[in-house]
Amino acid sequence: MPKDTIRTRRHRARTEDEFIEGAKADREPGKKPGKAGRPAKHTETTKLKAFNLPLSMIRQIEEEAEELTAGNASALIMRILQDYFRKKK
Fold it and tell me: How far apart are CA 65 and CA 51, in angstroms?
């Protein structure tokens, strides 16, 4: 084989039963292992929303997040807003 030829990885051919099993709509999706150090995915869908805040307030949020949520400012803000809306009801 010449050196400039690129060899691709060959996939194992699936049997007919494996192919049909993979195409079934009612089969349960396999649970993928999470990456180490990453939080579990949200149970509710999320959307990124930007807010314009003064830099002093952002610093305060980041400092408080370091103490309460291991630096996760989003988790801190979620806690604050959940408390606010719970009290409002």
Answer: 17
